[in-house]
């Protein structure tokens, strides 16, 4: 059966600007039908829109499907499906019927197909229900539903929950669609079928192609597991790979910060097996928004299985959470080549102070969205007896942020100029050690209180 499912998903929908994300790649393969007995429910649309050439082409395609499966089970065309596999026919229009049970006789299966008559509406939910009822829950055989239809649901319940129930029971679903008189909803086929859609859904605009579609599907179902697997995973350049966990099958090689190569010698050759690779990525930019996790992912194996993976996304929140006090205005000027003296007027300078310069920073924790913050920073110098002497105060209004949740806000470069104007200890030299104390006050400016008198 080759690769029967593939998946890729992440463990979170949102991360912060420097956040990490766990990515999981999963792959399931199963052996060929000769060594992996399989029960197949062939579910065929016989609604009124199939009248004429479509029903005739459907019968040819279904019988070709039966022949290919029969030969794949034991290598001979002896009229019997071998190696423990079985097949049953379900047909549907306004209601569904089980035309056969799960049997091995090729003639009985073909006779059931030839007996189909086109009339009535289209009830996909009942078709899935009757197909599920064919299977023995106690059987260890793999279970497959092949659904053929040429139109949309026109009667009966929503078929999607029934298809989901089948998949939850371990049943693999393939869908073949013919763009018939009633039209067809390919998105619905994708929902009903097992993943990936590329290997479990096939649609044709003309009935003439039905025999080929059924033949290709039978070949895919009878295909062996996968060998010499190589998966190249390249993440979005906005991310870097920070950690790769050891997979349960195969080996990995980190090519660079954004690329992993995963190799598996064989998977699903003797029994159904699932391989899982987990790794962590971290946002490596200061840009936010909804980002695709992948730049690309490619798959290849010796059996030429066609495998595709989902393309997950994550929302990265890179709200502004850091503020700085403005630096003094810089004044640029030039000196001509070979000049040894220059006199230049720097203009007016606002008195800041003389002495040492302190540059402080603080982080205000858990600031909620859409609320401004008033920040006060008080600086004191201490003498040898730990008495406080004021050295100044600065106040700031920190703008409200618009992130979706409360965040820490860092305010940097809070500058104080501390002059050498008093001696607070016994040191009389210029470069004496000095001791300072800072007190920080932070309060919300905005609240939801409204003093309007409505009486």
pLDDT < 50 stretches: none
Percent of residues in helices comes to: 10-25%
Compute the gyration radius: what is it? Answer: 36 Å
Q: Main sheet, how many strands, which sense, barrel?
A: 6 strands, mixed
Euclidean distance between termini CA atoms: 76 Å
Outline the structure in words.
The structure is a single chain. With 455 residues, the protein is α/β, with parallel strands linked by helices. It folds into three domains: 2-32 and 225-317, Immunoglobulin-like (Sandwich); 38-221, Rossmann fold (3-Layer(aba) Sandwich), CATH 3.40.50.410; 322-326 and 353-444, Immunoglobulin-like. Helices cover 16% and strands 39% of the residues. The chain is built from seven helices and 23 strands. The protein has helices spanning 53-74, 106-114, 124-134, 159-168, 186-192, 197-200, 210-221, and strands at 2-10, 14-16, 20-30, 38-45, 86-92, 96-98, 142-149, 171-178, 201-204, 226-235, 239-244, 251-256, 259-267, 273-283, 289-292, 294-300, 313-317, 322-324, 356-367, 373-382, 388-398, 407-418, 435-444. The strands form six sheets. It has a six-stranded mixed beta sheet with strand order 6-5-4-7-8-9, with helices on both faces. It has a four-stranded antiparallel beta sheet with strand order 1-3-14-11, with no helix packed on it. A hairpin with a 2-residue loop joins strand 12 (251-256) and strand 13. Helix 1 (53-74) runs antiparallel to helix 2, helix 1 packs parallel to helix 7 (210-221) and helix 3 (124-134) runs parallel beside helix 4. The protein is elongated, with a radius of gyration of 36 Å. The mean pLDDT is 87.
């Amino acid at each position: 059966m080759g690769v029967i499912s593939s998946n890729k998903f992440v463990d979170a929908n949102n991360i912060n600007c420097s956040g990490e994300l766990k990515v999981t790649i999963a792959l399931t393969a199963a052996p060929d039908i000769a060594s992996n007995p399989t029960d197949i429910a062939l579910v065929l649309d016989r609604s009124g829109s199939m009248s004429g050439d479509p029903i005739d082409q459907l019968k040819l395609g279904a019988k070709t499907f039966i022949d290919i499966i029969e030969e794949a089970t034991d290598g001979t065309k002896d009229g019997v499906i071998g190696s423990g596999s079985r097949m049953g026919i379900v047909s549907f229009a306004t209601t569904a019927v089980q035309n056969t049970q799960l049997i091995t006789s090729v003639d009985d299966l073909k006779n059931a197909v030839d007996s189909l008559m086109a009339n009535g509406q289209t009830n996909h939910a009942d078709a899935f229900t009757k197909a599920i009822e064919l299977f023995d829950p106690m059987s260890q055989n793999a279970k497959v539903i092949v659904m053929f239809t040429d139109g949309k649901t026109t009667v009966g319940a929503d078929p999607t929950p029934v298809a989901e129930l089948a998949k939850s029971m371990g049943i693999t679903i393939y869908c073949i669609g013919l763009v018939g008189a009633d039209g067809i909803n390919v998105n619905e086929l994708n929902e009903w079928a097992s993943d990936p859609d590329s290997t479990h859904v096939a649609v044709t605009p003309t009935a003439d192609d039905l025999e080929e579609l059924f033949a290709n599907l039978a070949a895919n179902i009878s295909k062996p597991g996968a060998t010499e697997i190589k998966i190249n995973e390249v993440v979005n350049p906005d991310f870097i790979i920070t950690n790769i966990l050891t997979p349960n099958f195969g080996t990995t090689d980190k090519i660079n910060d954004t690329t992993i190569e995963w190799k598996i010698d064989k998977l699903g050759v003797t029994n159904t097996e699932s391989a899982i690779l987990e790794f962590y990525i971290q946002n490596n930019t200061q840009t936010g928004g909804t980002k695709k996790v992948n730049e690309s992912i490619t798959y290849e194996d010796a059996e030429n299985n066609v495998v595709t993976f989902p393309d997950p996304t994550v929302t990265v929140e890179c709200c502004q959470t850091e503020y700085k006090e403005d630096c003094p205005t810089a004044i640029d000027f030039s000196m001509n080549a070979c000049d040894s003296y220059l006199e230049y007027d720097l203009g007016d300078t606002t008195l800041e102070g003389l002495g040492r310069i302190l540059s402080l920073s603080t982080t205000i924790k858990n600031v909620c969205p859409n609320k401004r913050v008033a920040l006060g920073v008080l600086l004191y110098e201490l003498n040898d007896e730990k008495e406080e002497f004021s050295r100044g105060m600065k106040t700031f209004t920190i703008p409200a942020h618009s992130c979706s949740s409360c965040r820490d806000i860092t305010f940097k470069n809070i500058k104080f100029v501390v002059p050498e104007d008093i001696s607070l200890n016994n040191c009389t030299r210029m470069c004496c050690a000095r001791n300072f104390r800072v007190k920080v006050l932070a309060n919300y400016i905005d609240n939801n209180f409204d003093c309007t008198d409505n009486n």
